[in-house]
Write a structure and sequence with these properties.
This protein is mostly helical. Among the domains are: 1-159, Serine Threonine Protein Phosphatase 5, Tetratricopeptide repeat (Alpha Horseshoe); 290-378, Alpha Horseshoe (Serine Threonine Protein Phosphatase 5, Tetratricopeptide repeat). Helices cover 67% and strands 0% of the residues. Helix 13 (235-247) crosses helix 14 (251-263) and helix 16 (287-299) packs antiparallel against helix 17. The longest helix has 14 residues, at 344-357. The two termini are 37 Å apart.
Length: 378
C-alpha cells in the first residue's frame, strides 16, 4: 500500500455552506459589508446549490471578506487564486493571502503555506519550514496539517524520522474523520509502520475511510478480500471494491479489473473488457497498464497487430517510472533489435536497472536467462 500526503488529495472543503439559509437576506447583509455574510455568499456561489455555481461571484465575495480581515475569506480567496477559479491563476498572490490568513491564526492558511514550502511553489523548497507550518496547523487541530506533519515524521522530511510520532498525528487527524489520515493509519497497521502490524485494525481504518468513498481505501479493502487477509477470500467482494474504486478513477483498480477480466478471476473471462481497462489505465500513464498494453502489441494478441515499435514505445513510457517488467522488456528488445536499433550497451543498462528493482521471481528468472544469453554481467 502507498501512503498519501495531504496535498495529493483534492482540497478538503473549506466552504461553510449552510443547508438552509435565506439567500436574499444574506445577499443584503453581504452588500452592507457583513463579513460573515460575504463568506457565506461566496460558499453558496462556490457550491452552486439552489442558485447555480458561479466561480466569479464566489471569488468576488471571498475577496470582499478577505479585504475586511476575514481569515476564512482570505483562505477561500487564496484557493481561488491558486486554482484559477473565477479569476486568473496566481500562485504568488495566493501565497500572500494564505500568509495573511495564517497571521490571523487560521490553521488552513498555515497548512497551505506548508505545502508551498514543501513543493517549492513561488518560494524556495524548504522541508524544514514546511514541517514548522504543518506543526502550527496541527497543534490548532487542523486535520490536513496533522496528516502532513505525520508524513514529515514518517519520511524524515524536515525532521528526524519517527514512525511512532507519525502514527500519533495520523490518529489525531483520523479521529476527526479525515479519510486521508484514516487510510494512512490503515497503511501503518498493515505494514507495521510505527505500530505493531495488525491487519484487523488496518482493515477497520480502511473501512472508515471507505465510508466517504475514498478510492485508495476501497481498493485496499478489495485486496484484503482477494488475498484473504483477516476476511474469507472472496473474489466477488474484491471485484466489487475494485469496481467502486475504479468508478472514482483510481488507476490501480482500473488496471486490476483488466487483470481480473483477462484471467477470469472473480468474473467471467472477458478479453474485450480486459483490454478496455488496460488501455484506460494506460491512457492516464499508469506504468503497469502501459506494460500490459505494450505486451499486447509485442505478442500481437487480443485484437492487436504485432508491432514491436509500438510495443517499445509503451515499455519506454512505463520504464520512465521504473516499472520492472518494462525495464526487462527494453533490455530484451535492445539486445535483439526489436522495434529499435540493436544496442547491447543500452540493453545492459536497462538490465541493470531492472535487476535493481525487480522483486517478482518470474521476472528475476527472465533476467537471469537474459544475462546468460547476452552476457549482461560482463
Amino acid at each position: 500500500m502507498r501512503l498519501l500526503s495531504g496535498w495529493s488529495l483534492l482540497w478538503m472543503s473549506i466552504f461553510s455552506y449552510a443547508q438552509t439559509i435565506d439567500i436574499l437576506t444574506v445577499q443584503k447583509q453581504a452588500e452592507l459589508g457583513d463579513v460573515e455574510a460575504q463568506v457565506i455568499l461566496g460558499d453558496v456561489y462556490m457550491e452552486g446549490k439552489d442558485i447555480g455555481q458561479n466561480f466569479e461571484k464566489a471569488c468576488y465575495w471571498y475577496r470582499k471578506a478577505a479585504e475586511q480581515g476575514s481569515s476564512s475569506g482570505a483562505v477561500s480567496y487564496a484557493y481561488m487564486l491558486q486554482n484559477g477559479l473565477g479569476t486568473k491563476k496566481d500562485s504568488a498572490s495566493a501565497f500572500t493571502w494564505y500568509q495573511k490568513a495564517a497571521d490571523l491564526g487560521d490553521p488552513a492558511g498555515m497548512y497551505n503555506i506548508g505545502t508551498y514550502y514543501e513543493l517549492g511553489i513561488v518560494v524556495p523548497k524548504n522541508e524544514e519550514k514546511a514541517m514548522i507550518w504543518y506543526r502550527k496547523a496541527a497543534l490548532l487541530g487542523n486535520p490536513m496539517g496533522q496528516n502532513a506533519l505525520a508524513d514529515c515524521y514518517l519520511y524524515g522530511k524536515g525532521v528526524n524520522k519517527n514512525p511512532q510520532t507519525a502514527v500519533y498525528w495520523y490518529r489525531q487527524a483520523a479521529e476527526q474523520n479525515f479519510e486521508l489520515a484514516q487510510y494512512n493509519l490503515g497503511v501503518c497497521y498493515e505494514e507495521g509502520l510505527g505500530v505493531e502490524k495488525n491487519l484487523k485494525l488496518a482493515l477497520e481504518w480502511y473501512k472508515k475511510a471507505a465510508k466517504n468513498n475514498f478510492a485508495d481505501a476501497l481498493y485496499a479493502i478489495g485486496t484484503f478480500y482477494e488475498q484473504g487477509h483477516v476476511v474469507h477470500k472472496n473474489m466477488d467482494k474484491a471485484m466489487e471494491y475494485y469496481q467502486k474504486a475504479a468508478n472514482y478513477g483510481y488507476l490501480p483498480a482500473i488496471y486490476d479489473l483488466g487483470v481480473c477480466y483477462e484471467q477470469g478471476k472473480g468474473v467471467k473471462q472477458d478479453i474485450t473488457k480486459a483490454v478496455e481497462y488496460y488501455e484506460k489505465a494506460a491512457q492516464q500513464g499508469f506504468p503497469p497498464a502501459l506494460s500490459a498494453v505494450g505486451m499486447l502489441y509485442y505478442e500481437g494478441i487480443y485484437g492487436k497487430t504485432q508491432d514491436y515499435a509500438k510495443a517499445f514505445s509503451y515499455f519506454e513510457q512505463a520504464a520512465a517510472d521504473q516499472e520492472p517488467y518494462a525495464l526487462y522488456m527494453l533490455s530484451f528488445m535492445y539486445a535483439l533489435g526489436q522495434g529499435v536499433e540493436e544496442n547491447i550497451e543500452k540493453a545492459k543498462a536497462f538490465y541493470q536497472k531492472a535487476k535493481s528493482v525487480v522483486e517478482d521471481k518470474e521476472i528475476q528468472e527472465k533476467l537471469y536467462q537474459l544475462a546468460q544469453e547476452f552476457g549482461m554481467e560482463k
